[in-house]
Write a structure and sequence with these properties.
This protein is of the alpha+beta class. Helix content is 60%, strand content 15%. The termini are far apart.
C-alpha cells in the first residue's frame, strides 16, 4: 500500500513538532530487533518519560531543519529510530544503555543533549550521571546544611546545661543515700 502525500506531511509535521518540543534525542540503529524486544524498549522508554519512534530518513532530515537537532542529519542512514525526551536526558540515556547491554543488536548512532551533539561513547558517561531527582536532593541537602548546623549549635547550650543539671541531681541523690 502506497503512502500518500498527506500521510507523509502528517508524519513530517508530527516529527517536526516532536523535535521542536524535545530537549534531547538519541538515534539508534534497531536492525535485528524483533517485535517483543521493540515493545519492551518502548515500555521502558515510556517509564522514563521518553518517546521512541521509527522514522523515514528523508522525512526526518527535513523535519530537523530549524531545530537544535540539525547535527544529527548525517546519521539518518539505514534503519533509524529516534528516542527523545523533554524532561530528563539522563533517564533516557540510562534506559537505552541498559537495554543495549541486554540486547546487543541495538546500537546507538548519535545524540543531541540540550542542543549539544555528543558521541555515542559519551552517552554511557551521561547514563552514569545521577538523575534530576537525585541532583535536586543533593542541592537541597547542600542548601539545608548551614541551617541544620546553626540549629544544632543553638541547641547545644541548653542540651549541655540539662546534662550538667541531670548529673548534679544524680550526685545529690547518691549523697543522701
Amino acid at each position: 500500500m502506497a503512502v500518500t502525500r498527506e500521510e507523509k506531511e502528517a508524519e513530517f509535521n508530527q516529527l517536526h513538532d516532536a523535535f521542536k518540543g524535545s530537549d534531547s534525542a538519541i538515534l539508534v540503529d534497531f536492525k535485528g530487533l524483533n517485535v517483543p524486544q521493540v515493545t519492551e524498549l518502548r515500555r521502558q522508554l515510556r517509564s522514563a518519560k521518553a518517546s521512541y519512534r521509527v522514522v523515514k530518513n528523508t522525512i526526518a532530515k527535513r523535519a530537523l531543519k530549524g531545530t537544535s537537532f540539525q547535527a544529527l542529519e548525517q546519521y539518518f542512514e539505514g534503519t533509524t529510530a529516534v528516542a527523545y525526551t523533554t524532561t530528563d536526558p539522563v533517564a533516557l540515556a540510562k534506559t537505552l544503555t541498559t537495554f543495549v547491554k541486554t540486547t546487543p543488536t541495538l546500537s546507538i548512532k548519535a545524540a543531541v543533549v540540550q542542543g549539544t551533539a555528543i558521541a555515542p561513547a559519551a552517552i554511557s558517561d551521561l547514563a552514569n550521571m545521577p538523575g534530576k531527582p537525585e541532583l535536586y536532593a543533593r542541592l537541597l541537602g547542600t542548601l539545608q546544611a548551614p541551617m541544620v548546623q546553626l540549629v544544632s549549635v543553638l541547641n547545644a547550650v541548653p542540651r549541655d546545661l540539662m546534662n550538667v543539671l541531670t548529673q548534679y541531681e544524680k550526685k545529690l541523690g547518691e549523697g543522701q543515700q
